[in-house]
């Protein structure tokens, strides 16, 4: 079956949460303060998703292989299932997000990446994203938690092609 990228549907929710939970722990658990892990349970990811105002897109063939989310000029999340790493799923999701942002008139897109997430950093650099600054940013915690967990965070930018005036046709 061919890869399909589409808006998230309710039927995708549990698979997306499982993939996000596993992917976050794989990429971040060893580079963030260990105390944050108490807020990285499947239940906390469900809260996080339910409060999100991002637009989510999923990549599927016979199962959910990854997802990307966007808000305003930002690519917010990009996760790919372990079995889909090394394929073109991550690149396809990234390009899909870049196209949507570009079609909305965004000329410079942004993304943030926890410093030390080397796999993501190498991927973004290969895909033409430019590291423009590193700063301390607080990790997400549930709304009723007053604790803060600052971590070094990279901000990347990428110039996107302007939307064609003829509706995107060549």
Describe the structure.
With 170 residues, the protein is α+β, with helices and mostly antiparallel strands. The protein has a single domain, classed as Gcn5-related N-acetyltransferase (GNAT) (Aminopeptidase, 3-Layer(aba) Sandwich), CATH 3.40.630. Helix content is 29%, strand content 30%. The protein is built from 4 helices and 7 strands; from the N terminus they run βααβββαβαββ. The protein has helices at 13-28, 42-50, 89-103, 118-126, and strands spanning 4-7, 55-60, 64-71, 74-80, 108-114, 130-138, 150-159. It has a 7-stranded mixed sheet with strand order 1-2-3-4-5-7-6, with helices on both faces. Residues 3-152 form the N-acetyltransferase domain. Keywords: Acyltransferase, Transferase.
Mean pLDDT: 93
Beta strand count: 7
Q: What oligomerization state is this entry in?
A: single chain
Strand content: 25-35%
The tally of structural domains comes to: 1
The first-level CATH class name: Alpha Beta
**How many strands, what sense, and barrel or not for the largest sheet?**
7 strands, mixed
CATH architecture: 3-Layer(aba) Sandwich
In spatial order, strands of the major sheet run: 1-2-3-4-5-7-6
Low-pLDDT residue intervals, each spanning 5 or more residues:
165-170
Name the shape in a single word: globular
Which homologous superfamily in CATH is the superfamily? Gcn5-related N-acetyltransferase (GNAT)
CATH topology group: Aminopeptidase
Secondary-structure element order, as H and E?
EHHEEEHEHEE
- Continuous helix count: 4
């Amino acid at each position: 079956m061919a890869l399909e990228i589409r808006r998230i549907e309710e039927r995708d929710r549990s698979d997306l949460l499982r993939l996000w939970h596993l992917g976050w722990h794989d990429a971040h658990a060893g580079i963030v303060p260990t105390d944050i892990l108490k807020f990285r349970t499947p239940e906390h990811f469900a809260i996080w998703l339910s409060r999100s105002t991002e637009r989510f897109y999923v990549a599927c063939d016979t199962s959910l292989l990854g997802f990307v989310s966007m808000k305003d000029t930002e690519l917010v999340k990009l996760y790919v299932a372990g079995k889909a790493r090394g394929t073109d799923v991550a690149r396809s999701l990234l390009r899909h997000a870049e196209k949507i942002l570009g079609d909305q008139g965004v000329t410079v897109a942004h993304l943030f990446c926890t410093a030390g997430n080397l796999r993501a950093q190498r991927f973004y650099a290969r895909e033409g994203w430019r590291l423009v600054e590193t700063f301390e940013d607080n990790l997400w915690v549930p709304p009723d938690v007053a604790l803060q967990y600052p971590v070094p965070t990279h901000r990347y930018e990428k110039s996107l092609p302007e939307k064609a005036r003829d509706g995107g046709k060549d």
